[in-house]
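Message: A physicist's question: would you kindly supply an amino acid chain plus fold tokens?
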Amino acid sequence: MKNRIELRHLRYFVAVAEEKSFTRAAERLHMQQPPLSQQLKALESQLGTILFDRLPRGVELTAAGEAFLEDARAVLVDVSAATARAKRVGSGVEGTLAVGLASSAATHAVVPSLIAAFHERYPEVYLKFVEGNAATLTEAVVAREADVALLRAPVDQPPEVRFQRLLQEPMVAALARKHPLAAKARGRSPPWVSLTELAASPLILTRRPGAPGMYADLLEACADAGLTPTIGTEVGNMLTNILMVAAGVGVSVVPASMKGIQASLVDYVPLRGAARLVAPLTVLYRREETNPTVGRFIAQARELSRTTDVIRTEQRPPKIRSRA
């Protein structure tokens, strides 16, 4: 389309208005004066008004020119700001990141440390949080309702999602403080209970869709030891699990990092005879990713994990695929 106003016309106009001279403006713009004069005449022609009074020495803005200068500067400032923001968003230092959190994962100290470190390093990234269990958070990442998620053991591993284990920790027995087994454990130095002792009481378990890995591992450990535990009840998440323990409904096993929850009512005791019972902390994200903040979050998680008891892997942060 001919005779349209382009950003360069605004820059030419502002330079002449500020220098009050075509000659000095041409030098500032690193161009010849005749083409500059032609461009400004074309601009005036398109606007249908005179912007400059041409004087023997230099130029002065007309009333129309004064008004146009104010708006031209505003447009150039907006374009400059938009360009800078696009670069920041494109590099992942600004934008939005939806983080999925499982309640049992969020209790580990590394999770708030990771979020705090990421927010401090990238304050212009708006963090949204999606709560759920391993199953719902995996679905949320696939459906792009979450960009990354932090959970314990994955339920399913769809091909479009990458799973990376950040660390793992032991499981401990959770016992109501008034439970006879808790008193027995406190009488030992250091305190401990065996899997056989634990399985003699009704077990409270996080139901299979929420934490199938840890659920299955506990039952398998009991089976290997020749134990047939009674399932007292199943709950939706680890926090409810501990609440039921505190209420005396039964006993359970939970990640060691959950120590301290309902501390006045629940004892957390090392478990013997169940070395295989560990609780991983896993981060998941899409293999084909267009949100550049995801790569920065994964890199931050790896950086923080180097100071933690980590199970390292060879996986790399996701490659950011262009939207084009």
In short: Residues 63-91 form the longest helix (29 residues). The two ends are 25 Å apart (CA to CA).
